[in-house]
Amino acid sequence: MKLIFYHKPGCHLCETLAEKLTQLPNLSLELEMRDINTRADWFEAYEYEIPVLAQVVEGEEVVLPRLSPRLPIQQMERMLKKTLRM
Predict the structure, then answer these.
(1) b/e map of 23-32 (b: 16 or more CB within 10 Å)?
(2) InterPro entries recorded for this chain (predicted)?
(3) 63 vs 72: CA distance, rounded Å
(4) Where are the alpha helices (H) located in 1-86, listed in sequence order?
């Protein structure tokens, strides 16, 4: 499953969430990392929201409900399974 991960360098919450997403035991995720500092539209949209996960569904980018990097991995996986369109 491919997800878009909006982040910025030096963001501790972004780093923690990205690390946990790679450790999910029952979900194989591919993260397309997008640094919001590289495009003005991404920066404007997500400056105060990062980290942000999105999924492309039928050609449209759908922002997923916010996942706290503090969540235990098992709870994060359950929440993603409920949210993702597979």
Answers:
(1) eeeeeeeebe
(2) Glutaredoxin-like, Glutaredoxin-like_YDR286C, Thioredoxin-like_sf
(3) 21
(4) 12-21, 40-46, 73-83
Average pLDDT for 37-54: 97
Residue 17 CB-density burial (10 A; 0-12 exposed, 13-18 middle, 19+ buried):
buried
State residue 86's pLDDT score: 67
6-41 per-position pLDDT tens digit: 999 999 999 999 999 999 988 888 899 999 999 999
Dump pLDDT digits (tens) for 56-84: 988 899 999 999 999 999 999 999 999 98
| Number of domains, the chain | 1
Distances in Å between the Cα of 10 and the Cα atoms of 2, 16, 30, 36, 37 are: 23, 11, 21, 12, 12
Distance of CA 27 to the CA centre of its chain: 14
The CATH number assigned to the domain holding 43 equals 3.40.30.10
